[in-house]
Amino acid sequence: MSRSAKNDKTKTNVMRLLDAAKIPYEAKEYPVDENDLSGSHAADMLGVDHGSVFKTLVLKGERTGFLVCCIPVDGEVDLKKAAKAAGDKKVEMLPMKDLLATTGYIRGGCSPIGMKKKFPTFIDEAALKYETIAVSAGQRGFQVLLSPQALADYVGAKLLDLQQNG
Fold first, then answer.
1. Is-contact 40 134, C-beta < 8 A?
2. Sign of torsion, CA 92 93 97 99?
3. Per-residue confidence band for 6, with pLDDT thresholds at 50, 70 and 90
4. Cα gap 4→9, rounded to integer Å
5. Residue 47 in 3-state DSSP?
6. pTM for this structure?
7. Which end of the chain is more exposed for a tag (fewer CB within 10 A), N or C?
8. Beta carbons of 38 and 30 less than 8 angstroms apart
9. pLDDT of residue 34
């Protein structure tokens, strides 16, 4: 179900921010399954390659504080690579109970765009294989498809290898 963001009543804050920055994107809506909030489910519902849909993970560094990593939905973040990217010795996943207070987003709707505060952000370099990637539009059931470089430039992200290898 493709939606035109211009004539759609459902416009998320992420979409408004992208519009304000004049960054082209396509908004897509899909049915939410409360029992399966995974990015894999989102990719299946959108009918796109799983490798082109990126989940947004929030981690906390031992010394450097919060950071954001976007990786393909079927991938696993390599905590050592994420720590190195952040300039820290050790990072760990943010407990789910702290996600809303830290980012302003809930599980299944966390986007690298428009968090409460600006955190160092890293996008897995696999994004560069695609003309467009999908990330959460900040609400369950909504994704935005946009250029990975445009996303990286907008959120000030570095593109590098973040995934566990095989």
1. no
2. positive
3. very low
4. 10
5. coil
6. 0.91
7. C
8. no
9. 77
